[in-house]
Amino acid sequence: MPKLDFDVITLGHGSGGVLTNKLLKSGVFDLLKNPLLDTHHDGAVFELNGKTAFSTDSYVISPIFFPGGNIGELAINGTVNDLAMCGAQPKYLSLSFIIEEGLKMTEFWEVLVSIKKAADTAGVQIVTGDTKVVEKGKGDKLFINTAGVGQLMSKANIDMNQVKPGDKVIVSDSIANHGIAVMSIREGLEFETSILSDTRPLNGIVGKLIEEFGYDIHLLRDATRGGVASVLNEIAQDAQVGIEILQKHTPVDPEVEGACEMLGLDPLYVANEGVFMIIADAQIADDIVQMLRTFEGSKKATILGEIVEGHKRQVILQSAIGGKRVLNMLVGEQLPRIC
User: Fold this and answer.
1) Is there a domain that residue 334 lies in?
2) Which domain holds residue 224?
3) Whole-model pTM?
4) Residue 199, by phi and psi: left (phi above 0), alpha (psi -120 to 50) or beta?
5) Total number of domains in the chain
6) Would you indicate the residue range of the signal peptide (predicted)?
7) Is 310 helix (H, G, I), strand (E, B) or coil?
8) What secondary structure letter does DSSP report for 187?
9) Beta 324-326 vs 315-318: how paired, if at all?
């Protein structure tokens, strides 16, 4: 960590004056250094060829540090993954901080280092951004906004209109780890084994899938807030199809399942940060699962269900004992401030 004149963030660090300059030059600009950011301009100029995807998101997770990650890498991975779900390879990101007065410099630096590592892992550059400081009590340590652009992959045709009856629904890995990891810190829970957030960039995996299977991949969605159940409900409603899934095919780690039972939560509604859903042609579904299982972070990929003609706009869950029930859209916020 570079030597700074203050141990905590002060209002002066958001003034646009000397302290802001010191904070940026001794920390942000040096750590995230690249030719586009080095201009220290309010914007960035770059070239992209062909179709371009654009996404933005804000991160207000509480607490800002949690088992397996922190708000910094979450912000980078989140926008990288949103672009990947469009069938694009992320290229450039903006990064904006809203910092509460009193945040420890050591904590801010730890977040910055995680941002740098996450950006390098995903292969993206942070090319512009902004920093604001609000009075103590007017924020919650640190909020982050990221926006990103990426180039659409030539074999990608990710579109809700592509979804059709007979398509298979694939989930990339075990679900609910992120939400339970965050809840464990909030509630002071201790488990026999450590439950870690699954935050990770997905663009590498998605790029290889699209290169291999191309147009036969009809839709991609990451199962963040609201979990798998909410994503499937959105797909059913927007594509005007029915979806049927099997509870016995739902990948949930035993310790996560136990924690959900203790907390009264359904893992299908718990947030993820490194799990995504694939709607694909039935003929290639098994091949997709086999390929996914070759990557770290998708070892438990499985076919969860399928798109059907009946009960349009609804998701039906077949329980492990054979019964069926409607899997409704989440009402309200099951786990607030989860990302």
Assistant:
1) no
2) 160-326
3) 0.94
4) beta
5) 2
6) none
7) coil
8) T
9) antiparallel
